[in-house]
Amino acid sequence: MSPLKKYIAEPKIAYFSMEIGLKDEIPTYSGGLGVLAGDTVKSAADLSLPFVAVTLVSRKGYFRQSLDASGWQTEQPALWEPSEFTSKTDAKVFVDIEGRKVFIQSWAYFVESPRNGSVPVIYLDTDLPENSPEDRRLTDHLYGGDEGYRIKQEMILGIGGVRMLKKLGFKIKKYHMNEGHAAFLTLELLHEFKRNIESVWDEDKIWDIEAVKDLCVFTTHTPLEAGHDKFSYELYDKVFGSYFPKHILKQLAGEKNVNMTLLGFNLSDYVNGVAKRHGEVSQNMFPGYHINAITNGVHSYTWTCGSMKRIFDKYLPGWANEPEIFVRVGAIPDEELWGAHLEAKKGLIDYVNSISGAGMDYETLTIGFARRATAYKRADLLFSDINRLERIGAGRIQVIYSGKAHPKDNEGKHLIQKIFSSRDRLKGKVKIAFVENYNMEIALRLVSGVDIWLNTPLRPLEASGTSGMKAAHNGVMNFSVLDGWWIEGHIESFTGWSIGPAPTEVTPDADMNRIDADDLYNKLERIIIPTFYNDRKTWIRIMQNAIGKNAYYFNSHRMMRRYVTEAYIR
Ligand SMILES: *Cc1c(COP(=O)(O)O)cnc(C)c1O
């Protein structure tokens, strides 16, 4: 009997994502979007939702990062073997790419919750002997290759994914597109719901757009225009041939090029951004559409470190499946909360010292910064005035960095080098370490082991951000620009600290870097450092609030309950 049998009886919500990060052994994720998808699936399993996820097998992963002595990044494939972790299904489908049949097989992984819920994740794979060598490589590299490679991958995910679910016997009641990469699935659904030609006057009317809209939910993740996938119609013609009439597609995905976000918007009854502010920013980018907001969350159990789990279990039993229980964080005695934090901090410092020789210690205020190395995240903001940083921080702070740059993002790669050169410049004054090859394991070590979590994106470009929510789950407070989720989570000096002006006061200003850096240094010097060293009681109070006010809300169980009630069932 197929292990999928018990899943296909009840109609499911099908969640499509180009990347899903469940664990490091399955390296089919690049960063926040993928980790969010993994947390989504884990919460769906915990909540016993009728859910199935679809993604690409990405056999060579995103990449493994190596850094040379100057901090220059090179990339190696992050190979994984699907048969080690998943079971091959017996279904095979194909899509027509450039007039060839490209066959797709799939692998099923089951996310099993201790609460008995279970969600299958279907990994699509073109590495089959009946495909040409080139087509076999189409599901190798996550976000690799050129535009042609990318559009083919999105065709496999969207069109191949719908066909695969059908072939496996799934009945689907909602399709949830996690970002535009999967939006071609709408075209396949239009084919499925095609009206009988005799029943309509006009041939164009055979496409039942309303029926497809009823089935689809679309989540946009970036307020950056360049972050939205677009393909030329020339490329579309070449790859898709006559699959779907171009003049109809132009009405749905844009006249100039195939805009995947627009396609998703036009064919989804429910569209949302991933934080309240991001919903508003997206609304301004796409006037005429109604854009909702469901603020992201992280999977509480995954993102809480061992020592914190122990005290949560002791004082807040049931917290992992009901994070609302964090409201009772005050039940944890201060010494035990601090003790659990110190245990995580020691683990991190030992780890960082062992790989970097940075010679960090347990007592110094430790700042963490880890995320994708790309210009708008401004990993170098802390070094804007390096002499001032030295004056404020010498002997009082130490900083741990991590993060990968996209292989084609040279500016991002230079940012890593800048961290390296700043580290050397501050040698003997402020200890700085860079942890190579950021992944989920390193993320958990960092968000739980540092004292404060720094985030300095250029507004309004951080759609949500999730690493700060992970920090909050470990009693680590955020020190961040007021953008994304932090606008909702921040209460000054109570849950953490802001950097720069309130979002309402922000006008695009060439001086934003200077203004933000100035505020960063001021708060570090006058508030954060003194509180950490001289007022431990207040410090622990803020840690409590990070848990009781931030983790309480910014978790993926709350997020999924909202998707269910606002997007899936309506
Ligand atoms: C959580 C996480 C991210 C996302 O972090 P942001 O703060 O949202 O940028 C990226 N990479 C890894 C490995 C993560 O665990």
- Say which CATH homologous superfamily of the largest domain is assigned: Glycogen Phosphorylase B
User: Under the CATH scheme, which class of the largest domain?
Assistant: Alpha Beta
- Which segments are poorly predicted (pLDDT under 50) over 5 or more consecutive residues? none
Total helices: the number is 21
Principal-axes geometry comes out as globular
Q: Report how far the terminal alpha carbons are from each other.
A: 35 Å
Derived from helix and strand composition plus strand pairing, the structural class reads alpha/beta
Q: How do you describe this structure in short?
A:
The protein is an alpha/beta fold and 570 residues long. It contains 21 helices and 19 strands. It binds pyridoxal-5'-phosphate.
Report on this model:
- There is one protein chain.
- The model has no long low-confidence stretch (mean pLDDT 96).
- The chain has a nine-stranded mixed beta sheet with strand order 5-6-7-2-1-8-9-12-13, sandwiched between helices. The protein has a six-stranded parallel beta sheet with strand order 16-15-14-17-18-19, with helices on both faces.
- It is of the alpha/beta class and 570 residues long.
- 40% of the residues lie in helices and 18% in strands.
- 54% of the residues are buried.
- Pyridoxal-5'-phosphate (PLP) binds at residues 31-32, 35, 371-372, 438-440, 443, 465-467, 470.
